[in-house]
Amino acid sequence: MITNFSEYPNSSILLPQKVIPDVQEKIYSCFSKTINGIITISQRNCGGRMQSSSTHRKTMRQNFVQLVIGVPALAALISLFLFHPSQAHSHDYLTISGCSVSDVGYLRALAREYERRTGVKVFVRGGGSVVGNEDLKSGKVDLAASCMVPDSRDSGEIVCIQVAWDALVFIVHPSNPLDNISLDAVRSIYAGKITNWNQLHGAPARIRVFISRTKTGLSGVEASTKALVLNGQDPVESPNTFFAASSGIVEQLVEETPAGFATTGITSARKRNVKLLKVNGVAPTNKAIIQNRYPLKRPLYLLVPASASPGVKRFVDFVLSREGQQFLKSQNVISLQDIK
How far apart, in whole angstroms, are the C-alpha atoms of residue 322 and residue 82? Predict the structure, then answer.
């Protein structure tokens, strides 16, 4: 079952039509290079022996006809059977990109469940909230996942629909002896005032701070961190601050870095091999978040075009339905039903 752009079965590659042009261009480029190589070889040799001038011209004409007729035909066949399989018409699948927290936390599982119920394939990839928003505006995907509200300038083009709840969590490597942290200590880490774990009664090691940030602005997690934790302040950049393109990458970096520290969403973090720190003595459990004993709660959204297709509307309707929300709860996601 395919739920990610990078997962293709060997026997039948199903590429969404929205990503076809770039791939086709690469294939035709390869054909062009191959043709040039064949022509060069034909000019120099044919059948392992040099030919007379008249025979050479005849052979070149034959080669040219074969190339002109054969290569485009072959390319057309590849385009037809490889990129436009009969079982994958536009109404038979949906494409989603965006928020890495949503991607890992629930979207992949939701895509499989939706296909099981409806037969409609849902291709999912992460990349971050900013990427999803840009993909949606440019028409590369049908929906986008996000953990932040789109820019007000996009309000006429994009509809923002909350589908679940999340909460920011602070993560460290499983080997880190630290179990609890205060919000003041977190602010001091991001301000560059706390730089070594021994300042928090841990083993002596410089704290390696990982932050998700895109080239075009704050990621969803960084925007939430700035608003909910840092009182609107930007984190201080230091030699121990490292930026990654998405929260998914940040989480993986913390998994591999004993001195690592990062902020991410609980929806995806609990599916990683990381330690989730208590905040002011309160563990980030669903119950504590629902009861507002654990702070830093935030919404998760799906973004859809203002003129969404019937297929997109059916998918969103399912996510918001009782059955859809119950499925999210089965994935340990805080549903809309949990917080009124």
Answer: 38
Domain that holds residue 123: 90-164+300-330
Domain finish residue from 83, 105, 135:
83
Q: How far apart are CA 239 and CA 69, in angstroms?
A: 59
Calpha distance 126→65 (Å, rounded): 46
Same domain, 155 and 48: no
End-to-end CA distance of the chain: 35
User: Is residue 158 domain-shared with residue 188, that is, in the same domain?
Assistant: no
Residue by residue, DSSP assigns 117-175 as HH--EEEEEEE-HHHHHHHHHTTS-SEEEESSPPPGGGTTTEEEEEEEEEEEEEEE-TT
Residue at a domain's end among 35, 67, 83? 83
Residues in the chain with pLDDT < 50? 1-90
Same domain, 193 and 305: no
Which residues have C-beta within 8 Å of that of residue 263, sequence separation ≥ 6?
A: 168, 169, 170, 171, 186, 211, 221, 222, 225, 229
Q: At how many degrees (to 10) do helices 322-330 and 108-118 cross?
A: 140
Judge whether 180 lies within some domain: yes
User: What pLDDT sits at residue 64?
Assistant: 37
Q: What pLDDT, on a 0 to 100 scale, did the predictor assign at position 116? A: 96
d(CA 180, CA 224): 21
